[in-house]
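User: For a reading group we're discussing how well predicted structures match intuition. Take RVT_3 domain-containing protein. Before you show the prediction, I'll give you the sequence so everyone sees exactly what went in.
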Amino acid sequence: MEEDPSESERGIWKLSVDSSSCISGSGAGLVLMIPDGSTLEYALRFKFKATNNEAEWEALIVGLTIAKHLEVQRIEASNDSQLVVGLANGEYQAQEEPMAKYLSHF
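Assistant: Thanks. Here is the predicted 3D structure of RVT_3 domain-containing protein, as structure tokens, for the group to look at:
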């Protein structure tokens, strides 16, 4: 029986994002894990008012943009927003205009 190759051997990067929004502003953190196990960490501060889900989208899009500039070929992204994950996976349909715009950009 052949073993499943490790993520490092498959060249899969991992992107984890988390964000928050409150009266004083919104921001996010993201971590890109390189297949060799090292990480790139970023902190984002948004200069606009955003809901939690909008901040989650912003962080996801920034993380994927960074990965694109680094010429990443394979990536797995994780996010703790059920709405954002459902929209990105095609499980949900965008009901509100802001979510539809983020989904279109994604």
